[in-house]
Amino acid sequence: MHHDNHAMDACIQACLDCHRSCLATVSHCLAKGGSHAEARHIQIMLDCAQICIVCADFMIRGSDHSAHLCRECAEICRECATSCADHSDADDMMRASAAACTRCADECAKMAA
Amino acid sequence: MHHDNHAMDACIQACLDCHRSCLATVSHCLAKGGSHAEARHIQIMLDCAQICIVCADFMIRGSDHSAHLCRECAEICRECATSCADHSDADDMMRASAAACTRCADECAKMAA
Amino acid sequence: MHHDNHAMDACIQACLDCHRSCLATVSHCLAKGGSHAEARHIQIMLDCAQICIVCADFMIRGSDHSAHLCRECAEICRECATSCADHSDADDMMRASAAACTRCADECAKMAA
Amino acid sequence: MHHDNHAMDACIQACLDCHRSCLATVSHCLAKGGSHAEARHIQIMLDCAQICIVCADFMIRGSDHSAHLCRECAEICRECATSCADHSDADDMMRASAAACTRCADECAKMAA
Q1: Closest Cα partner for A43 from A57, A58, A22, A28?
Q2: Distances from the Cα of C53 to the Cαs of C5, C66, D33, D54, D86, in angstroms?
Q3: Which of A97, B50, D7, D58 has the fewest Cβ atoms nearer than 10 Å?
Q4: Contact indicator for B34, B109 with CB cutoff of 8 Å
Q5: Cβ distance of C54 and D58 shorter than 8 Å
Q6: Residue D111's pLDDT is what?
Q7: What H or E segment, with its residue span, contains residue A40?
């Protein structure tokens, strides 16, 4: 599949943004405690932050395997967006993080194989 | 799918070993230069070193997504093993790295979904 | 400063072990909740897990900057060991993690500049 | 030391940009080969790409150790900028990478301890 450079640039940037957003939200939610610090919620954000930077790195290197990583990244980002947006105590930071996850999932879905 | 702890422990260790082996071989091959420093060969080792540590991390965290990462890791490890073992100038370090990749691919294949 | 290969090998392995131990303990403590999931405790384990793998990678690549990373890694490992061992609810897994941190701090201190 | 949020935001973004720029230039230089693929040049770019993302992550998490990472990151970025800008065969991509390294070094120096 051919992707123009502009689409890949946008996807890389969405991954970097989502990495930053999820990692910041981990610290935010740990500091709030209670339901924000539930294991499943923190864990999916850690998974999401990591797959996003790895997916970005594979695209930046121009790896043949980047489409597979994009597929996995899109899936994890969707799950993380749900964990943030549907959280019973969702606040502004979690909603912003959910939006970053959804944008990243959309961009990665375009590049996925 | 159920995996006993022993199988996952072995897979995590194989990923950590392969990460170390591939990253060391990148430096070794860059220092040797010539055909050792060919872009495709260095790139697949960088891909392999990174997917191995990420795959290990997902298993260590007990992530629901670790089986998917194991599937991707196995595929990249097989390609890296071939790049090292079939290289026209393969030396002892590259053969050792190919062996670490093959072991990691085998362990990851058992855990993959 | 000259370091024989054996000392650096031991330090790399201690870093990989500590990375694994701290990352596993993050998940363990998040699952236990309560005081185990306190922000400062989880955060220092995330810092420790990350500096350990980075420090290992710099040594594996043979980087000129690895001694600086070892100095920083030793400092963070000591703080993480304290956070685990002195925790009011320390359990076996946290004590094992504290031991891995202390071993890693000791090895890194030998390689530090 | 107190840093306003704006200064740290700028530093995090400079680290993410430099990570991306250096990793892309590794692939670019490996593909060009010859003097571009010299071990020392590729290695400092790999060091720089890694310390930049780690430094960003420590700041994003709000870690107490981020000032130390910034100090190390500034040092490695300066060395990488020199390796790119002073390279006998420097091309546009290497000059752009040198500029990203210099910006990142400047931002990190402000945050360093």
Answers
A1: A22
A2: 19, 12, 29, 10, 31
A3: D7
A4: no
A5: no
A6: 96
A7: helix A39-61
Band (A5; pLDDT cuts 50, 70, 90): confident
The model's pTM is 0.96
Percent of chain A whose predicted confidence (pLDDT) is above 90: 90
Q: What token pair was written down for D44?
A: 């400092």
Kindly list the distances between the CA atom of residue B109 and the CA atoms of B8, B95, D67, in Å, as whole numbers in the listed order: 11, 21, 41
Tell me, rounded to whole angstroms, the distance of Cα D26 from its chain centroid: 12
Whole-number Å distance between alpha carbons of B26 and A97: 36
The reply to whether residue B23 touches residue C62, judged by beta carbons under 8 angstroms, is no
- Reported as a single tens digit per residue, the pLDDT across D33-59 is 999 999 999 999 999 999 999 999 999
Mutate: best of D15, D17, D18, D20, partner A, most A CBs <10 A: D20
Q: Which of B31, B33, B39 is nearest residue D31 as measured by Cβ atoms?
A: B39
Q: Which residues of B touch C23 (CB under 8 A)?
A: 57, 60-61
d(CA D38, CA D40): 6
Chain pair B-C, CB pairs under 8 angstroms: 28
Do C47 and D68 count as a contact with CB atoms less than 8 A apart? no
Sign of the dihedral through C-alpha D10, D11, D14, D15: negative
CB D2 within 8 A of CB D110: no
CA gap A26, A101 in Å, rounded: 14
